[in-house]
Amino acid sequence: MKLATLKDGSRDGQLVVVARDLKTACIADGIAPTLQRALDDWNFIAPQLGELYDRLNAGRAVNSFEFESQNCMAPLPRAFQWADGSSYVNHVELVRKARNAEMPDSFWHDPLMYQGGSDDFIGPCDDIVMCSAEWGIDFESEIAVITGDVPMGVKVQHAGEAIRLLMLVNDVSLRNLIPAELAKGFGFLQSKPATSFSPVAVTPDELGDAWKDGKVHLPLRSSWNGNLVGQPNAGVDMVFSFPQLITHLCKTRNVRAGSIVGSGTVSNKDAAKGYSCIAEKRALEMIATGEPLTPFMQYGDSIKIEMLDKNGKSIFGAIDQSVVEADGV
Amino acid sequence: MKLATLKDGSRDGQLVVVARDLKTACIADGIAPTLQRALDDWNFIAPQLGELYDRLNAGRAVNSFEFESQNCMAPLPRAFQWADGSSYVNHVELVRKARNAEMPDSFWHDPLMYQGGSDDFIGPCDDIVMCSAEWGIDFESEIAVITGDVPMGVKVQHAGEAIRLLMLVNDVSLRNLIPAELAKGFGFLQSKPATSFSPVAVTPDELGDAWKDGKVHLPLRSSWNGNLVGQPNAGVDMVFSFPQLITHLCKTRNVRAGSIVGSGTVSNKDAAKGYSCIAEKRALEMIATGEPLTPFMQYGDSIKIEMLDKNGKSIFGAIDQSVVEADGV
């Protein structure tokens, strides 16, 4: 099943069911007005959405219309939780190595995870609006899951059962604000502006064989200003699976329906697979030449993030955003 | 105006208007079913709630009933944002001094703030359920505001206009998990379990003269196992006002209606005012004797947090919780 949220002027948007080929959609209003509402009562609502999805795919849905990513908000335009892991430890090690910092060995068995802001997500084709290009604007291509309710202390073998939907993420980061902010010790705040998500969220079964062991075994494609700069396989070098990340988050508290848990920037040890964020490219340059050569994103730059299935079809639709300067700066 | 959310079996509870004396309440269902809904359209909804509040205070509200804190959820049982500052820099300096760590001078002009989990708040009288008493369970008595929409880059002189409501907070902390978690560099996650809030949220005008310069000029009373252990004045030694904290949060992103921004643990330089968290007491002991003497909270311990007006009347109702062991640990 594929779900999206259309812009309708409201804060939570309009839930729609989207056909597998992403060409048509159908309003789910008679079933659930918003995705959060569906997640709040998933076991009752999901089968009804699933029936509509089947009719839509069969060309039998009444009042279906053309689906356009440009009209999408994030599947959850605002969420009660956004916790982002750092599962591709290779990425962390590279970035640290570039600044001559040792990575603690514990990072290989104790996940890094930060609590992100979730009140103001932006849509897949919305502009990345910034007050300064000096902040070091970077994209981060990731995968995220949306959970149901998960009890405190959940065991890893049960955590996977709570995964309701998957999405792609652009976890925009302000690299030049990060060092001073992390040095204060309280984690990211100003250095993580509004996050964007793929047009559609999909149930795990949509991934077929590619969804295995709580990981997505497909390349995640990032194109910066139209050039493909990364296609690492999200199933390779992911040290912590999504169930492990959820278990980490649930150690001391309950996690409630509609929580979003991210994978962190997708990265393979094989450098030929390219990069999912500019910081990693710069880290490689730093290690090779002693200085970073590639600048961060500038006003007017674009970033496209997409994942194709084995037949070359887009699974989630594409995140496709441009960086623009805020009015009145 | 005073607002609360009653337990009704739903995730967001039932919005009620509460009389100024906290003795009676009235369902606001014809106006807005939940507090988030009221915040989403505050300029339209608040005047209607205000009229009901006036009728309730005058004893003319239809279907009013006895108000009981035990039936309350947090005013926002789940929220789209919870960002907690550390405005009482004295507290930060003390805790650091106890472990022989210098506090950077920048902490006096650049606020510390962390992004907290907001998907699973607990009510004012709900148990603090923990899987281990070895985690170093501590209370933290604070004040928080709930905001409306605030645009990215807001100036401090406008940030105060976005403050809709105030609450008390128990920002429960797991002290023995904090050092290792902060050392990882990504901020608090497991060391900050579910947060609880006062029974009612109040509009700033309810504080009268005590609301001045974006600070609450009244003592915040913390009683641990029935003993008053702290009554620092929240208006004293608050280095960053609420408008300054909101401005900090908005530097790189929009903040949306229903965001909660906290003051951090209230603390006065005058040690005679006592403490709002055990960590501070232990820091003072460490500085005086070389070792912390007071243990953290144990199963069965209680914590009561309250603020009285100049006539000795409770403004927000009391947070009054006990620590209990999770089932099946």
TrEMBL record, chains A, B:
Keywords: Hydrolase. The keyword Hydrolase applies. It comes from the Bacteria. The keyword Hydrolase applies. It comes from Undibacterium rivi. Residues 1-78 form the Fumarylacetoacetase N-terminal domain. Residues 82-320 form the Fumarylacetoacetase-like C-terminal domain. GO terms for molecular function: hydrolase activity. Pfam families: FAA_hydro_N_2, FAA_hydrolase. InterPro entries: FAA_hydro_N, Fumarylacetoacetase-like_C, Fumarylacetoacetase_C_sf. This is Fumarylacetoacetate hydrolase family protein. Gene3D superfamilies: Fumarylacetoacetase-like, C-terminal domain.
